[in-house]
Design goal:
The protein folds into two domains: 146 residues, P-loop containing nucleotide triphosphate hydrolases (Rossmann fold); 76 residues, Orthogonal Bundle (Arc Repressor Mutant, subunit A), CATH 1.10.10. It contains eleven helices and seven strands. Strands 1-7-6-2-3 form a five-stranded parallel beta sheet. It has a two-stranded parallel ribbon with strand order 4-5. α1 packs across α2. The longest helix is centred in the C-terminal third of the chain and has 19 residues. It is elongated and about 70 Å long.
Length: 261
């Protein structure tokens, strides 16, 4: 039965309708500044308070640490200790947590105490990859240029081999793929990841190890995403991997209408 007052009496009719849908897929389209994050927070509160969803089965993903902190604080204000056990954070923070727990022995020689390289460290590795190239680049390329190419490849979930296959077997892509391969090998030898690897390698981990994927699918039965329209290819594919339709499993997403921005 839908609530009539208490936590939800400040919602307008459209917000109320989105918040109080039964567990399952919900897509909220609204303009900037209309309270999407608030609706998502109230949606979580509704699931816990009125649908008796175990908070430990909820994963709430945001795009900024600020939004994640705001969501947790609002839930504490709304529910107090009843929200304990819920998992929330940015895509990258949650992926880092997954990799810390499960990467060892499953992807290359990585261990749980891997380092996440800062931008200057990535630049150094990219410079080394360029210096080690036997051929000259078809166009002028410096470390920032190479890192942009590698980042775009990882956002499309492309390894060096797949970059050649889908990016195009051109002199430029052949050069970039070679540098990308050296760059990635250096990272692995150093037990280091760059920022894009957090999602890239999490996707690889879950797709290559169905037993690990099943653990997370069983754990997170309710998936809520703030600013869903901002997901890139890698983030969207990661969500699809975590998603598995099953009776009683909810997938809730908060989205802004792109035409309103």
């Amino acid at each position: 039965m839908k609530p009539t007052k208490s936590l939800f009496d400040t919602l307008n009719p459209q917000q109320y309708a989105a918040v109080t849908q039964p567990p399952g897929a919900v897509l909220v389209q609204a303009g900037a500044g209309t309270g999407k994050t608030r609706v998502l927070t109230m949606r979580i509160a509704y699931l816990i308070e009125h649908e008796h969803v175990d908070p430990s089965t909820i994963l709430a993903l945001t795009f900024t640490n600020k939004a994640a902190k705001e969501l947790r604080e609002r839930l504490r204000d709304l529910l107090g200790q009843r929200s304990r056990g819920l998992t929330s954070g940015t895509f990258h923070a949650i992926c880092a947590r997954i990799l810390r727990a499960d990467i060892a022995g499953r992807i290359g020689n990585y261990t749980a105490d891997f380092t996440i390289y800062a931008e200057d460290e990535q630049m150094q590795v990219a410079a080394e990859a360029l210096d080690a190239a036997l051929e000259r680049p078809p166009t002028q390329m410096d470390p920032p240029d190479l890192l942009r190419h590698i980042s775009r490849a990882k956002s499309r979930l492309l390894t060096p081999r797949l970059l050649l296959r889908f990016g195009g077997n051109t002199p430029l892509y052949r050069f970039v793929a070679g540098c990308y391969r050296r760059y990635q090998r250096t990272l692995e030898r150093s037990n280091a990841l760059d920022f894009d690897d957090l999602i890239f390698l999490t996707h690889r981990l879950l797709t290559e190890h169905p037993d690990i994927l099943e653990q997370y699918q069983e754990r997170w039965r309710h998936l809520l995403v703030d600013e869903y329209q901002d997901t890139d290819r890698a983030q969207l594919d990661l969500l699809k991997v975590l998603y598995r339709a099953r009776p009683g499993r909810g997938r809730d997403q908060s989205k802004r209408d792109p035409s309103s921005s």
